[in-house]
Specification:
The complex is a heterodimer of chains A (110) and B (115). Chain A is mainly β and 110 residues long. Chain A has no helices and 11 strands. In chain A, strands 2, 4, 5, 9, 10 and 11 form a 6-stranded mixed β-sheet that branches. With 115 residues, chain B is an all-beta fold. Helices cover 0% and strands 48% of the residues of chain B. Chain B has no helices and 11 strands. The radius of gyration of chain B is 13 Å and the shape is globular. Classes of the chains: A mainly beta (110), B mainly beta (115). Chains A and B meet through β5, β9 and β10 of A and β5 and β10 of B.
């Protein structure tokens, strides 16, 4: 069955640094991959989508890479701010279905 | 633009009792999803609707869970009877039908506690 691995431990970084979150997957060939942000008590919010034929996508301070050979996506937040503190979920897409990882909690400290 | 609306936000019930959750998707979104999210986990799909048709309910525990989407707009998810293991956040999401993508817009969820 499909398996998605995201760092289960929280990532703590200093304000202004770049946060890098990892999403690894097995037994799946997604047509695309998405990243969502989830704050406590709220539903996930869509951030970025990257397709299988794309290597990199950017949006403001966010950057996503997608390596289908390594079966890995990296999610970067540059110049991080305390307001970026949240849980970030990756989701594999295809066949009209999204499969979510458990998420990584990011804490940005002033 | 109004987002996905869910009610209630919180529900506490005793086991074996019935419970129902309601969702109103973003206007014009044909596809509606119900997910369950356990603490520390990602959302897991329960059922997906295309208009009023349930096109993927393979993960819905049909012995106790049921859902409907009358007129292809809002939807109700029901559990009867509830079990302790049903305690979770139930999320509703909607999306436009776009070929090749599945960007979903989530509601705030209903936190269910079964005692």
């Amino acid at each position: 069955s499909q398996k998605i691995e995201q760092n289960s431990e929280a990532l703590n970084i200093q304000e202004g640094k770049t946060a890098t979150l990892t999403c690894n997957y097995t037994n799946y060939s997604p047509a695309y991959l998405q990243w969502y942000r989830q704050d406590p008590g709220r539903g996930p919010v869509f951030l970025l989508l990257i397709r299988e034929n794309e290597k990199e996508k950017r949006k403001e301070r966010l950057k996503v890479t997608f390596d289908t050979t390594l079966k890995q996506s990296l999610f970067h937040i540059t110049a991080s701010q305390p307001a970026d503190s949240a849980t970030y979920l990756c989701a594999l897409g295809g066949y009209n279905k999204l499969i979510f990882g458990a998420g990584t909690r990011l804490a940005v400290h002033p | 633009e109004a987002g996905v609306v869910q009610s209630p936000r919180y529900k506490i019930i005793e086991k074996k009792q019935p419970v129902a959750f309601w969702c109103n998707p973003i206007s014009g979104h044909n596809t509606l999803y119900w997910y369950r999210q356990n603490l520390g986990q990602g959302p897991e799909l329960l059922i997906r609707y295309e208009n009023e048709e349930a096109v993927d309910d393979s993960q819905l525990p049909k012995d106790r869970f049921s859902a409907e989407r009358l007129k292809g707009v809002d939807s109700t998810l029901k559990i009867q009877p509830a079990e302790l293991g049903d305690s979770a956040v139930y999320l509703c999401a909607s999306s436009l039908e776009e070929r090749g993508t599945d960007t979903q817009y989530f509601g705030p969820g209903t936190r269910l506690t079964v005692l």
